[in-house]
Design goal:
35% of the residues lie in helices and 11% in strands. By secondary structure, the chain is of the alpha/beta class. Helix 2 packs across helix 3. The longest helix is centred in the first third of the chain and has 19 residues.
Length: 420
């Protein structure tokens, strides 16, 4: 078979295939089933996916033959797809020390950290389509979609060691109630708690925004801890605010970490990792070459930012952009709002001020620019061989939503040390 005729997971995204798929909404689930099976083909977890994966493979091959007008044997197709899912920047470790699942996975910050420690991911869930593209490009696996649906939960295997989840923060309706498991229904934490209740992993590792501590006057966190400790019977030490800047990246990013251990692990004491004695600055992660002109602000937009700042300052409010010096550290990278404008830098290496995109005014001569997606990736601890297969707008959103890999890894290391 010629290279151009080889089967690929990406074929299911083509218009020819899409026309023949009865329910386009199931396309990603089919890819998820198949890639999860291929990633676990040599271990016991594969039994969780093999039945559905076999159906998907038959349908896949049939569609391929229709589109390409040639005969393809299923065994040959399986080998081609197996090569594809492993031929990625961050394949599953050959020798693994523990198994974990990755919920609300985003672009795989938890997965990166856990694989670095020798972990094997046996289930992934992420509903955002653009994030799924980035996840697949780097790990060779398509995440399952909406974790609130039973059709997704049914694929979660038994017997994994650690549940990882950077779940969104939502308020619970707990007025006049005990604030237990049932009171979290309708929230995404409920789905996490339900999976913990069903699968009983040895350990859990949850991440959320710092504001969770005071969310709904502290009731949200209080309910979460009550459910984990009392309803689900896990040892859960007091959560801790961890700052990414303390673990080797120049970003002031505070997040709350919640860890827990199943009681039979006999863990009665847990210490979060101590900050590294390592000074990091923006210049350590700055682009080695001058970035494209599109990242430099126009004179008119720069003036707009100045006007906004002055208008808010006159009212006694803090607002506006911020320029990070080379020897400084970035503010937390976040999607939306002023996420990029609060992390501007001065880069005077630019020589050609010809605009490459449509702008009002002209490119500013002060060298003020936005950080690039790659710089945001480095601020979150992703290595430079991490692929960014999406447009800049999606990339900023994905890195802004991600966990900081080094801080996650340092904490996960302490968790794994305590597991039997």
């Amino acid at each position: 078979m010629k290279a151009k005729e080889e089967l690929s997971i990406y074929d299911l995204d083509s218009k020819d295939f899409q026309k023949r798929v009865k329910d386009p909404n199931l396309t990603n689930q089919k890819k998820a089933v198949l890639t999860h099976y291929l990633h676990n083909i040599e271990n016991g977890v594969s039994k969780n996916y093999i039945k559905e994966a076999g159906k998907v493979l038959k349908e896949y091959v049939h569609l391929y033959e229709e589109v390409n007008d040639l005969v393809l044997e299923e065994d040959n197709a399986l080998q081609q797809l197996l090569f594809e899912v492993n031929n990625v920047p961050f394949p599953t470790p050959k020798e693994n020390k523990f198994k974990f699942i990755d919920l609300f996975a985003g672009i795989g910050g938890f997965r990166m950290a856990m694989q670095n420690l020798g972990g094997k991911c046996v289930f992934t869930s992420e509903w955002d389509k653009e994030a799924q593209k980035t996840y697949q490009a780097n790990y060779g696996e398509v995440p399952f979609g909406d974790i609130t649906k039973e059709e997704t939960k049914k694929f979660i295997p038994d017997g994994f060691d650690v549940l990882c989840a950077g779940f969104p923060c939502q308020a619970f309706s707990i007025a006049g109630k005990r604030g237990g498991f049932e009171d979290t229904r309708g929230t995404l934490f409920f789905d996490v708690a339900e999976i913990i209740k069903r699968k009983k992993p040895k350990a859990i590792f949850l991440e959320n925004v710092k504001g969770l501590r005071n969310h709904d006057k502290g009731k949200t966190l209080e309910t979460i801890l009550n459910v984990l400790r009392n309803d689900l019977d896990y040892y859960v030490p007091d959560p801790q605010i961890i700052n990414a800047k303390d673990f080797g990246v120049p970003q002031n990013r505070e997040r709350i970490y919640i860890v827990g251990f199943r009681k039979d692990q006999n863990v009665s004491r847990f210490e979060y990792p101590k900050p590294l004695q390592k000074k990091v600055e923006f210049k350590d992660i700055r682009e080695k070459k001058v970035p494209p002109t599109k990242f430099y602000l126009s004179t008119q937009y720069l003036q707009t930012l100045h006007n906004h700042r002055e208008r808010h300052a006159s009212k006694g409010n803090g607002f506006g952009f911020e320029i990070i010096p080379d020897n400084g550290i970035a503010n937390a990278v976040v999607c939306g709002g002023m996420g990029r404008e609060r992390n501007l830098v001065i880069d005077k290496r630019i020589k050609d001020f010809t605009p490459t995109t449509h702008i009002k005014g002209e490119v500013n001569r002060e060298g003020i620019r936005k950080m690039t997606p790659r710089e945001w990736a480095r601020l979150q601890g992703f290595p430079d061989n991490f692929l960014i297969p999406v447009a800049d707008a999606s990339a900023y959103k994905q890195f802004g939503n991600s966990v900081a890999v080094p801080a996650i890894q340092a904490t996960a290391k302490e968790i794994i040390l305590r597991l039997k």
